[in-house]
């Protein structure tokens, strides 16, 4: 591909940038697209343009010539076996549903930087310590300001400082309760990362990004590495396969619903909801630092049920498609704007209710504060 395709306003996003073997592993059909072979590895361009109308081209022309002879002779499967030979167990392997940044950096890490052939190139996310500046959204004013972040596995914490020379951190986020998930659309930046942690048994959100895509993905994998090493100590008998799904998680569902209060006579109000594992949180704004309320959703064996619709006497709701969540303590009433939203929320809730609770989840349930 020409140099003009490699740079447009300094940034070109990938779309579906995986060799055939990677896509086959995900068991997902490719979208309508045009294929091209670079050095024996299939790459793809799609018709989906960026916001300014530029097609999303795969920008890896310099990546593949390094191993052109090898891959032309041996094919994609051998290439994958070679270039993924030393992937750390904690390193996030993106799927078809992940954001473009994760897919792009996965390809670049494998073929361009060859991080999984040379272990020394994994230092940015594998040493147990990382320090740097990130753009963080202010809790009150919504402005993104540069802040110093320090990740230290020895202290089991991610910290950030309002000033570079500050001795005391503004916040200390324990690795034990930390989660990170990419949220480019919500944050309004293609490298946007949402980090959550527990503060006084309530969820606190911070929203960060880095202008360099590799930097923010390295931070993401460094957080996963710290979580991995923490869990190895906490659960010494667990296998890597048991621990990896616990390193970070994407939300089961997010979006707007209406809710009413505990008396069920209050007016319904539109709120932003996030289903994070068994925590259903609601916010006035999607980028709020703290939830207005949280609901623990347990299993059906523990008396939790999801019902379509609302009790017959319910009034004052604007949206027509109701959902009732029955817990041992009370009923929670929600409404959705569309029937498809209702179906998606019910499916997300049902997935949680159908899953048996783990021993540690009973402890969370016991200490959880149900907030209307």
Automatic annotation (TrEMBL):
Which CDD domains did the record assign? PH1_ADAP, PH2_ADAP
Q: For the PH domain, which residue ranges apply?
A: 127-228, 250-354
Record's GO cellular component terms: cytoplasm
Q: Does the keyword Metal-binding apply?
A: yes
A Pfam match is: PH
Q: Which GO terms describe its molecular function?
A: anion binding; GTPase activator activity; phosphatidylinositol bisphosphate binding; zinc ion binding
Annotated segments matching region Disordered: 1-35
Intracellular or extracellular location(s): Cytoplasm
Q: What does the UniProt keyword field contain? A: Cytoplasm, GTPase activation, Metal-binding, Repeat, Zinc, Zinc-finger
Family matches, as InterPro entries: Arf-GAP_dual-PH_domain, ARFGAP/RecO, ArfGAP_dom, ArfGAP_dom_sf, PH-like_dom_sf, PH1_ADAP, PH2_ADAP, PH_domain
Question: Which residue ranges have biased composition labelled Basic and acidic residues?
Answer: 22-33
- Is Protease found in the keyword set? no
In which domain of life is the source organism classified? Eukaryota
What this protein is called in its record is Centaurin, alpha 1, isoform CRA_b
Q: Which organism is it from?
A: Rattus norvegicus
> What lineage is this protein's organism placed in?
Eukaryota, Metazoa, Chordata, Craniata, Vertebrata
């Amino acid at each position: 591909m020409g140099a003009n395709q490699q740079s447009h306003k300094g940034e070109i996003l990938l779309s579906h940038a995986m060799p055939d073997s990677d896509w086959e592993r995900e068991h997902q059909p490719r979208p309508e697209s045009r294929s091209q072979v670079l050095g024996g590895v299939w790459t793809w361009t799609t018709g989906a343009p960026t916001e300014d109308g530029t097609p999303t081209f795969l920008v890896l022309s310099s990546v593949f010539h390094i191993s052109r002879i090898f891959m032309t002779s041996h094919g994609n499967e051998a290439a994958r076996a070679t270039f993924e030979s030393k992937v750390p167990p904690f390193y996030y392997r993106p799927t078809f549903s992940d954001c473009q940044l994760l897919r792009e950096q996965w390809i670049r890490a494998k073929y361009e930087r060859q991080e999984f052939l040379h272990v020394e190139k994994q230092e940015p996310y594998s040493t147990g310590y990382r320090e740097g500046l990130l753009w963080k959204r202010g809790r009150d004013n919504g402005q993104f300001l540069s802040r110093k972040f320090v990740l230290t596995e020895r202290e089991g914490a991610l910290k950030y400082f309002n000033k570079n020379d500050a001795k005391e951190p503004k916040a200390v986020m324990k690795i034990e309760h930390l989660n990170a998930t990419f949220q480019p659309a919500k944050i309004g930046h293609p490298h946007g990362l949402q980090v959550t942690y527990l503060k006084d048994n309530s969820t606190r959100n911070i929203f960060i990004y880095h202008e360099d895509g590799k930097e923010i993905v390295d931070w993401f994998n460094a957080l996963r590495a710290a979580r991995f090493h923490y869990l190895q100590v906490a659960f010494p008998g667990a296998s890597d396969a048991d621990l990896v799904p616990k390193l970070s998680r994407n939300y089961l569902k997010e979006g707007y619903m209406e809710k009413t209060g505990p008396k069920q006579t209050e007016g319904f109000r539109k709120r932003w909801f996030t289903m994070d594992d068994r925590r259903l949180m609601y916010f006035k704004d999607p980028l709020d630092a703290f939830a207005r309320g949280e609901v623990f959703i347990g299993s059906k064996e523990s008396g939790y049920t999801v019902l379509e619709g609302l009790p017959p006497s319910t009034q004052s709701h604007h949206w027509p498609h109701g959902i009732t969540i029955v817990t041992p303590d009370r009923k929670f009433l929600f409404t959705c704007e569309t029937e498809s939203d209702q179906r998606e929320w019910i499916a997300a809730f049902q997935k949680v209710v159908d899953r048996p609770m783990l021993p540690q989840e009973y402890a969370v349930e016991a200490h959880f504060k149900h907030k209307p």
